[in-house]
Amino acid sequence: MKTWIHKTLAFTAVSALIISGCSAKTTTETSASAAPTAQANQESGKKLKVVTTFYPMYEFSKQIAGEHAEVIGLVPTGVEPHDWEPSAKDMAQLKEADVFVYNGIVEGWVPKALESAANSKRVVVEASKAVELMEGLHEEDEHGHGKEEKEHKDEHEEEGLDPHVWLDPVLAQKEVAAIQAALVQADPAHKDAYTKNADAYIAKLKELDDLFRSGLKDVKRKDFITQHAAFAYLAKQYGLTQVPISGLSPEAEPAPDKMAEVIKFAKEKTVKTIFFETLVDPKIASTIAKEIGAKTEVLNPLEGLTDEEKKNNLDYIGVMKKNLEALKKGLNE
C-alpha cells in the first residue's frame, strides 16, 4: 500500500499541473450560485456536467440524471478506488463540473482536490452524509501498515468509519435521494425529471431489498467470511454477521494471528465457502479456503466493475442480485 508521504507528494504534483490561470484563492461553494450554471448550460445547449468518483456514485447519478446531464466517473473500470488518486486530467474535469458526487471516507483526496480545483458554482454532494456511519474494522497487517495509516491519516478523513453504505439497498436509497437533491439544486429547470427518475430507481432498490430480505430470512447459518470488511451494513440490515479476514482496506494483508483466528473460526463453524472480491488478489481467501478444505466464491463490494462485468451489461442491481445468490448458496451449505 502506498505510504502517506508518497500520496502527499503525488497529490501535490498533480495539483501543480491543474489549469494555468486557476485562482489561488479558495472560493466557498454555495447553493445560491448553482442556478446560473444550469441556466447558462440551457442557453448554450450544453448538458449539466456531473462528475462522480467511483462506480456506485456514477451509477446512481446516471440513473437520476437521465438525458439531462453528462455523467462522468473518475475512477476507471477495473481499478480499486481506496488508493486511487486523481490525475491532472481528472482535476480539470473536477474544476469544470456543475455537480460533484462522492461517497465519503473512501475518497480521502477529495477535500484537497476541491480546494485546488475551486469552482464557486459547483454543487458538491457527499452521498453518505445523511447515513449514520458504523465504526469500521481496521486491521494492522504484518508489516504495520495499519498503524502507519492511522498515524498519518488526512485531517479531513473521518477516522475509523465504514464507508460501504452503498452495499445496503436500504441505505443506497438515501444516497440516491442526496444525489437527486444536488441535481435539482444545480438544475431546478429539470426538477420533475430528476425526481421521477430517482423515484423509479428507488423503487428498484426497494424491490432489491425485498429480494434480500426474503432470500436471507431462513438461511441455515448467519455468519460468512469475507476477504475484506465491506459488508457490515448489508449484514446488519439482514440479520447476518460478517467475519472479515482483513479490515476496511482491501489491500492490507492480515497479521498471522488474525489469519489463525479466522481459520479456527471457520473450522469450528464448518464453513464451506470463503468469499473474495473481483478487484483484489484473492490469495488470502484462497489460502484460508485451502487450509480448511473450503471453496471460494465472489462477493462483490461494487467498488468498480470489471471489464467482463461491463461486457455482460451488468450494473449495480445485477451485481447485487448475484451477491444475493452467492450468499444464499454459501449460507445454506
UniProtKB/TrEMBL annotation:
The keyword Transport applies. Residues 1-24 form the signal peptide. GO terms for biological process: cell adhesion; metal ion transport. Residues 136-155 have a biased composition (Basic and acidic residues). Keywords: Signal, Transport. Pfam families: ZnuA (PF01297). SUPFAM superfamilies: Helical backbone' metal receptor. Gene3D superfamilies: Nitrogenase molybdenum iron protein domain. CDD domains: AdcA (cd01017). GO terms for molecular function: metal ion binding. InterPro entries: AdhesinB, Bact_metal-bind_prot9, Lipoprotein_PsaA-like, ZnuA-like. Belongs to the bacterial solute-binding protein 9 family. This is Zinc ABC transporter substrate-binding protein.
